[in-house]
Amino acid sequence: MDETHLLSPDSTVADNNKSKKKNKNKKKKITQSRSKAKRYALITFEELPEYMKDNEYILNYYRANWPLKEALFSIVRWHNETLNVWTHLIGFVLFLGLTVANLMHMPQVRDFLSMFIRSFPMTADTNVSHNSKDIFLVSHFYAHLNHLYIHVHTHIHSRIHTHTHVCVDLFQIWGLRKKYITLEGLLQETTKLIDLKQTASPEMEIPSLETAAARWPFYIFLAGSMFCLLSSSICHLFSCHSHYLNLFLVRIDYIGITVMIITSFFPPIYYIFQCNTHWQFIYLTGITIMGTFTIVTMLSPSLSTSKYRPFRVFLFMAMGLFGIVPAIHGLIVNWNEPQQNITLAYESVMALCYMIGTIFYVSRIPERWKPGWFDLAGHSHQIFHVFVIFGALAHYGAALVFLEYGNKVGCGRSI
Where does the sequence pass through the membrane (predicted)? Predict the structure, then answer.
């Protein structure tokens, strides 16, 4: 007998209802998915809320009133802000890498990190069981080696009088941890350090840590650049969420620009005038006060309206023009300094990049020539972002020269 005939009518009806309910839920999910996709679809310039209408030459691919989650995930979606986000996000990562690289070259940081690996084997052929006694002796005598290092460094420095980079060889002893696994290696490297005093030329000089220039102005500039680039990326990514968040992020974006301008002044002014502390104080205090006033202006709801746009432009121009005064002063003070030409070249490239980027930003070229053609890639704001990064990198190159000059002059204090 066919088993289907044994099923009750109630069982068949229940199965049919379950199947219908399943299909209904499936259709509901599809409808919700389509509704969500339609709701968060990219729109045209005409469909934008008034507060988001900024560049009438970019016609399509806008986001408006998106939830924060959707806005975050749009970082991997093509729209007219995608490259605005990624250009400065890549710039932020680049400057973060430069900051870490410079920190790793500081003896204090390198020695701090080396503490975590000083007792571990660094070569594959190291036999821990055979060398356990040596490892114990190494850890026991490590403090004595540190005192010996300081004593030899001081003694050599008192005997050597011209400049070279022998100090690099001294600092490299802390990078030779793999040879300290055995007591024999420890003694060999200690002997090399002592022999360095005997083989060093009388014309050599070891720059003292006590007379090296302070590095904090250099890192202030790097931090300001990273803040500007990151705040710009965040602004372009999340400004589509709401009117309130849009206004807030735009202010933060302008504050980031202000911070970058302020911190860019610190390396040149500090290192050029580090032996003239009164001028150093006057110039750094002046740009800090101007920048603080600009930031307060940006945070004010009334002063951040379109009515006061000329006033805000004036503040940015005033900060930029302020830099002419210490620049001319620095040229006069260091007229015969060979490194002056190098810094001038870097700073000229920086100024040129910022000027070209600003021209693209203000003129809205090329999208004004072909509206709609550059909606996704190649419009003025993206070009502006690229030139900002190039300008910041040029100033980074100049900052390295200023830091080297500061070490040469030797009026600062290390940190």
Answer: 85-105, 218-240, 252-273, 279-299, 311-332, 344-362, 383-403
Four-point Cα dihedral 264, 265, 270, 272, nearest 10: 110
pLDDT tens, position by position, 217-272: 999 999 999 999 999 999 999 999 999 999 999 999 999 999 999 999 999 999 98
Radius of gyration of the chain (CA): 31
Does 379 belong to an annotated binding site?
no
How many domains is the chain built from?
A: 2
- Could you tell me if 264 and 399 lie in one domain? yes
Helix axes 243-272, 309-322, angle to 10 degrees: 20
The pTM is what?
0.69
Q: Are residues 162 and 246 in the same domain?
A: no
- Specify whether the CB–CB gap between 88 and 230 falls below 8 A: yes
Asked if 350 and 391 touch (Cβ cutoff 8 Å), the reply is yes
Same domain for 148 and 94: no
Annotated binding-site residue? 385: yes
DSSP assignment string, 357-375: HHHHHHHTTTTTTSTTTTS
- Residue 144 marked ligand-binding: no
How long a stretch of residues is the chain?
A: 415
